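sry for the spam today, last one i promise. struct tokens for design, 359 residues
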């Protein structure tokens, strides 16, 4: 396992994170405590140190199991949990990003996790009822109180993440240090706005749904027609058979598994991209951990890109047009090297890639 730095914090985190939405069987699926313990131990033995959960996961059981498993070794791990989603159907204020729900959720999570601090608290989802300034001030108060070390954001639009961090910087509050989004070969829409924004703000991206509910393992390809069986909670676009078959073929050619290829593709992306591993069986985790040893060739990456490519749309297509580039940057724009964007692989670097010579 290799490690990367969590944005601008200096905190070292493993290149693969362990997601624990599968810890507990309260929702009719998932892993019992004994299996969860084996999954946790295999991840730790591989050098993994970033654990992700939420107060909502399996009605709190995920946090309870983690609290038991972390006993005696809590400080060795970077522990993150989330708040926002409703935890009590009879309490209207047990959902959302208000200060009241935040404080109550943190205190309940700390009890279940058997710890007195969280390394990272995620805002689990977007809530238009709570103004961004109110939320960021309330989060900063929790950091200053010592309950939380860092804060992050999940499932927000790019413009509002940018607004929140700009506001935090101006007012001396704790900014978001990471972003958690759905991102995989079958869901590349974040490349339009979220990922360019994350690179500019130096926000590491944690990817949930990294295997698209198992679709990218190829196990749902069936029959002579190769049609994909869609799961009830599937979030991916339809008509993705061709891509899944390409993943399976590349895996077979390289002696890997489709899951390893899909995760290796995420690890190859610009910026800091950290897949969240989820498993209900020990064998599944061991398989996905093998992704760190997969090195996809330029040719293989090109094949995956050609099959999964998402059109960026306006204004990105206009801003990548050669004539527009010439008019914006001048006729000699290809001779301009901006080390800030080159080193950080930022927006301009992506815009200049693979374009024809300027007229």
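last one done:
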């Amino acid at each position: 396992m290799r490690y990367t730095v969590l944005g601008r914090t200096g905190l070292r985190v493993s290149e693969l994170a362990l997601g624990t939405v599968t810890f507990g069987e309260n929702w009719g699926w998932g892993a019992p405590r004994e299996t969860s313990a084996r999954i946790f131990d295999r991840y730790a033995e591989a050098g993994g140190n970033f654990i992700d959960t939420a107060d909502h996961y399996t009605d709190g059981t995920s946090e309870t199991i983690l609290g038991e498993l972390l006993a005696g070794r809590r400080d060795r791990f970077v522990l993150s949990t989330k708040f926002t989603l409703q935890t009590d159907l009879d309490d209207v204020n047990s959902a959302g990003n208000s200060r009241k729900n935040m404080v109550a959720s943190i205190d309940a999570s700390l009890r279940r996790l058997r710890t007195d601090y969280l390394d990272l608290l995620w805002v689990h989802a977007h809530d238009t009822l709570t103004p961004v300034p109110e939320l960021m001030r309330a989060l900063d108060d929790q950091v200053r109180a010592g309950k939380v070390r860092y804060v992050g954001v999940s499932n927000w639009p790019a413009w509002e993440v940018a607004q929140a961090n700009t506001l935090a910087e101006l007012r001396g509050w704790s900014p978001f240090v990471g972003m958690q989004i759905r991102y995989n070969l079958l869901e590349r829409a974040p490349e339009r706005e979220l990922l360019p924004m994350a690179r500019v703000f130096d926000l590491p991206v944690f990817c949930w749904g990294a295997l698209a509910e198992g679709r990218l393992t190829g196990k749902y390809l069936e029959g002579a027609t190769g049609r994909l069986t869609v799961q009830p909670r599937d979030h991916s676009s339809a008509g993705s058979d061709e891509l899944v078959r390409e993943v399976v073929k590349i895996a077979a050619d390289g002696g890997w598994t489709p899951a390893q290829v899909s995760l290796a593709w995420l690890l190859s992306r610009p910026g800091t991209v950290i897949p969240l591993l989820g498993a209900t069986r020990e064998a599944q985790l061991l398989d996905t951990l093998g992704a760190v040893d997969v090195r996809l060739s330029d040719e293989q990456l090109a094949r995956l890109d050609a099959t999964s490519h998402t059109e960026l749309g306006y204004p990105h297509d206009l801003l990548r047009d050669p004539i527009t580039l010439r008019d914006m940057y001048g006729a000699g724009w290809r001779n301009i090297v901006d080390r800030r964007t080159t080193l950080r692989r930022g927006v301009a670097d992506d815009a200049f890639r693979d374009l024809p010579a300027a007229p």
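The two ends are 47 Å apart (CA to CA). ok im logging off now
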